[in-house]
Structure formats: C-alpha cells, structure tokens
Please model this.
Amino acid sequence: MKNTGFTMVIVGRENVGKSSLFNKLINQQKAIVDDWPGVTRDKLYGECDWEGHTMNVVDTGGILFEESDVIKSLIVKQIKPVLKAADLVLFVTDAQAGIIPDDSRILDFIKKCTDKYVLVVNKVDNDKLQQDAYEFYNMGVDKIFPVSVTHSIGLDDILDYAVTLIPEETEDVSKADETTKIALIGKENVGKSSLFNALVEEERSIVTDIPGTTRDTVDTKIEINGQSFLLLDTAGIKKRNRIKAKVEQFSIGRAFMNIQKANIVIHIVDAIEGIQEIDKKILGYAFENFKGMIIAVNKWDLVSPEKREALRKEYDDYLKQNINFINFVPIVFISALKEMGIEKLIDTIFLVQNQYNFRVKTSVLNKVFREAIYDRNPSSKSGQLKAYYMTQVRTAPPTFVVFVNKKERLHFSYLRYLENRLRSSFGFEGAPIKLKIKQRENEQNT
Model:
C-alpha cells in the first residue's frame, strides 16, 4: 500500500491512553523506535493501514504544565509546529476523569495551532460512560469520538473519518511523488547542516522552502542539473545516555521518520571519529527500510593529504569487514564547509538514484538467473528443489521474485548468492535489493 502522506498527530495530557491508542492504530509493529530503547519515552512514529490507505501516526507524548498552569515552553516549542503541519489532530481525553481544566487549556492551545482536530474521549468502557462522553461537546468542539482503546471500540470510526479527509490523488500529486527525497542523516555535529547549505547554495536554485515539523527539520526543494530533489535536513541522532529533553527525543524520532520518508539516505560520518556503533545502527535502520544509501565522510580537509589514500582504504576495508550487509554502499569523501568533493557527491546521488530505479529486462534477467543456477544449483535436504525463473516486480527499491516448486526448501543463503549475482551483473550500487520467494501455483498442492 502506498503511503498517502496523510498524518495524524495524537496529543493530550499524560495518562489518558495516548500511547495505547498509538499502538492500536499501528498494530504495535511499525513504531520506528521499537528497536532503539531509550531514544524516546513514547513511540513517536508509525504507519496505519486502513481501507487501502497508509497514513502516518505521530505520538507527541503528554503535554505538561508549569506550576502556573501554563504549558511548558519546551513542550510548546516541540509540539506547536507538529500540530500546524498535521492533517488531523487527535486530542485524547479521559471519559472517567471527565472534563478537567488541563483539557480546556490544551484545547485552547490546539485551536491556536490548527482547526483540523477532533476530540477522542477514551476509556468509554460502559454504557454510562458512553452517555457521559457527550458532555465533552460542552468544550466547544464539533466532532467527538467516544472510544475504548483497551477494548478496541470506536477506533474504526476515527479511521473512517480520517480516510474521508485524504484528498484524491491528482496529476500534480503524482508528479510531486516523483521528486526524489534525500534525507541527510548522522550523529550531531558531523556537519550535516553544512552539507545541507552546500547542496542548496552552490549554483543551485532553491525552488521553495517547506517548513518541517520540528525546530530541527527544514525540507527544501532544490534543482540540480535540471532535476528536482527534496532535501530533508534532520536532527542529529544522539546516544541513549545523552538524550534528555523531550524536544531532543522528538527530533530523533523525526530523523528516523525522515529515513522512512526518503528515497535516498546520505549518512554523514566525521572523518576523524570514523564509523561508530551508533552509525551502524542508523545505517542498519536505513538498510532495513530498503533506502538508497550513500556514506559521506565529512571534514576530509582535516586529514593531511599524505594520509588520505591510506584512510580511504581503511574506510573501504572497514565497511566490507564490519558492516558487510551494506558493502554495496558508495563512500564519498567531502568537506562540506570547504565545499570539497560536493560535485563528486552530486554525481553519486544521480548514480544511486538511477540504480535505485533501475529495471532489468526480463529476458536479460533470466539469462543471468539461468547462469547462476548452472553455476550453483539450489539444493535442499528436505526433497528436490527447483527454481524456475525470476522476475522484477518493482523498482525503488529493486524487487525481484524467484519462482520455485517448494518455497520452504530454499535456504536464505541461496538468496544471498542470487543477490550477489544480480549485483555483479547489473551493479545496483547504493541500492538495496529485495528478494522474494514465490511458489508456482500448480505446485501448491503437490
């Protein structure tokens, strides 16, 4: 299912069931921080599938108040731009607690940011509470959804309503979708913003500035050699023990969100510090999401010329030996501040874009496939295994289906072998390859 780009943002005070609602909407599967303990207190971003539409869901965490009953300035700074950018705000309250002053203050805050909101009255667990929920209309809202997140009651009503708000795809939307999105990702202080500025400013026309949804994100549409790109400038990603403020937590969530949104990820590394464990995790996340990938080793000007060749080899060797699952990713050595190596990086962006969208002719593909089988026939301990043919079903990422007689008999190591043959034959530099196994229909019951 194609992501519509429609975004629902969940807000409310603490302990009203926001995280539970978030988990139910995304089926507890797609929150970007599930496998990154400590990055955020709440799961910030996920995707929700409903009636053929995929929508984004953002959980902002509980809204806190100062002693003077004013929303904390840090939270305002964090949430205000998110609300303004949202397609629908889900303001969650508690039916069992009833209307309390904090809810009214939060609603006033929401109204100052957007008019695209509904009130979700949670914990409606019996008939009496169902009736009590309608008292929330006294808050001056137009639309209320009484729900019980715990019992999954009423959630379909919210999603049905959200789907009605998704605009029908037009020709202009289709064209916008063709714009390649590039996320600049990396630890803090690796020169991400310097690279962003170098790409934007050096003889390139800025088409339009698109405000991002956090203080750390500015999405900018640029034109390079007559082609449009959307640069997603994201927050620096910090180690777990350095994450303190909620605004930092949200920025990190947004960085992972932009990896999901991007077509190509440029991961920036400090030339002096080298590739560290956190870099491996970021690269792993981009790989798992099948994004086109480039590693930009920044601050190359700080490396003395006589040491550069040896350091280049060191980086290449490290990638092959320690992160070999992404050994197809090109490495470019740059100095964003000195604008050194930027043209090489741009050439690599075009290369990866081409490889990410490359489609192999079926006749050529199966010639390579037959040669691969001839050189190394797939074997199985549980009976005869036959591999019939291969087809490419999509691009971005390049996705191939291998048709066999018994798919459970094909070992994953053979898929790795096939991937290597595809790369040696067609390149796919910087592009992850997705391989699927399918059993031929006439073999289903044999």
In short: Residues 72 and 176 are 37 Å apart (CA to CA). The chain is about 35% helix and 25% strand. Residues 29-43, 170-176, 202-217, 242-251 have pLDDT under 50 and may be disordered.
